[in-house]
Specification:
Blueprint (H helix, E strand, L loop, with lengths): L2 E5 L2 E4 L4 E8 L6 E8 L6 E6 L6 E3 L7 E6 L4 E6 L8 E9 L15 E2 L3 E6 L1
Length: 127
């Protein structure tokens, strides 16, 4: 059973930065495509960023492009989300997600392609 644990959330002022981490256990991390999603109160869960199993391909939502960066360390079974230039609209619970892929260049931007999810970490950006 794959287990994902997010950390690094918190309260930050607008313009600030946070680095989220997602530690994985229980599976072959280097074969998982990973994604970050977020959900604000009263809204649907939305895609933020994705990375392929080998880290060679990344993809971002337009709303975060140029401000957020996804990366992974397969030796540490961890995926990261560096968030710079945070804005109040970025306030949400952030979730990491994983799905197995035999294609080392695969990634997905839709929730239903991921079958493992973390419990989420709260990010609050004050104005």
């Amino acid at each position: 059973q794959v287990h994902l644990v997010e950390s690094g959330g918190g309260l930050v002022q607008a313009g600030g930065s946070l680095r989220l981490s997602c530690a994985a256990s229980g599976g072959a991390f280097s074969t998982f495509a990973m994604g970050w999603f977020r959900q604000a109160p009263g809204k649907e869960r939305e895609f933020v960023a994705a990375i392929s199993p080998n880290g060679g391909r990344t993809y971002y939502a337009n709303s975060v492009k140029g401000r957020f960066s996804i990366s992974r360390d397969n030796a540490k079974n961890t995926v990261y989300l560096q968030m710079n230039g945070l804005e109040p609209v970025d306030t949400a619970v952030y979730y990491c997600a994983a799905t197995y892929s035999s294609d080392m260049n695969y990634f997905s931007i839709v929730t239903y392609n991921y079958n493992h999810w973390g419990q989420g970490t709260q990010v609050t950006v004050s104005s």
